[in-house]
Amino acid sequence: MINFQQVSKTYPGGHRALEKVSFHIKPGELAFLTGHSGAGKSTLLKLISLMERPSAGQVLINGVDLNAVKSRQIPYVRRDIGIIFQNHRLLERYSVFDNVALPLIIEGTHHKQIAKRVHGALDKVGLLDKAKCNPATLSGGEQQRVGIARAIVNSPPILLADEPTGNLDPELSMDILRLFEDFNNHGTTVLIATHDIGLIARMRYRSLTLKDGRMIEDPLAEGAL
Ligand code: ADP
Ligand code: ADP
C-alpha cells in the first residue's frame, strides 16, 4: 500500500531530511511514525501526498510509482489520501459543513451526494449538530474532528496524520486516536506521525522511528525479527 525503497530527500540548500528510508505498510494496517522534532516525519508524509518529491529512491502507493506521476496527475493520486494536520487549516469564512464539503466540491461531486456524505462524515466524528457552526466557535478538539471529517469525507483508502494530537490534552488525544482506530477497523490504512511517545505506548501498534532522517526502528523491517 505504502512502499518506500531507499528514499532520500535533500531540500534545496543542501539539508538532507531523509536518508535511504525503506519500509512497507500493508493495506489495512495502522502504524505510528515517530522521532524527534526535525527527524523527517513531515517530509516522509509529504512524499506520500506528493507535496514533495524524493531526491533518490522510489515511493509506491497502491503499486503506483510516484516518480512516474506528472504534476497534472497529482490531484487524482491525492484523492486516495486523506491528510490531517495539527493545525487543522479550516476556513473560517465557511461553516463546518462547507469545510468538510470542500474536497467533494473540488472533485465535482453532485450536491445531493455532497450533503449525504458530509452528514455521514460529521456523524462519524460526532459533530452532526455543529454542521452550521463557524469553525472558530468550536473547541480545539472539535476543530480537529472537523479536520478529520474533511479528510475522510471522500472515503480515501489511506489516511495520513501529522501530529494530529499536538494541541490536545491526553484525554482528547485518546479520543482522536480511537477515531483513527475506528476508520482502520473499517479497512482504512492509517499512518500517524507523532512525537507523543506516551500515546503510542498506550496503543499496541507498529511504530516506525526516524532519527536524523534515518529509519532506526521498524519491528517489521527485514532482519529485525
Ligand atoms: P519532523 O516532521 O520530524 O519535525 P521535518 O520533516 O519537518 O521533520 O524536517 C526534517 C528536516 O528537514 C529538518 O531539519 C527541517 O529543518 C528540514 N526541512 C523541512 N522542510 C524543509 C524545507 N522546505 N526546506 C529546507 N529544509 C527543510
Ligand atoms: P450548488 O451545486 O448547490 O450550487 P455549490 O457547489 O456551488 O453548490 O456549493 C456547495 C456548497 O459549498 C455551498 O454551501 C457553498 O457555500 C460551499 N462552497 C462553495 N465554494 C466553496 C469554497 N471555495 N470553500 C468552501 N465552501 C464552498
TrEMBL record:
The gene is ftsE. One of its GO terms (biological process) is cell division. NCBIfam families: FtsE (TIGR02673). This is Cell division ATP-binding protein FtsE. Homodimer. Forms a membrane-associated complex with FtsX. Its main location: membrane. One of its GO terms (cellular component) is plasma membrane. Pfam families: ABC_tran. One of its GO terms (molecular function) is ATP binding. InterPro entries: AAA+_ATPase, ABC_transporter-like_ATP-bd, ABC_transporter-like_CS, ABC_transpr_LolD-like, Cell_div_FtsE, P-loop_NTPase. PROSITE patterns: ABC_TRANSPORTER_1, ABC_TRANSPORTER_2.
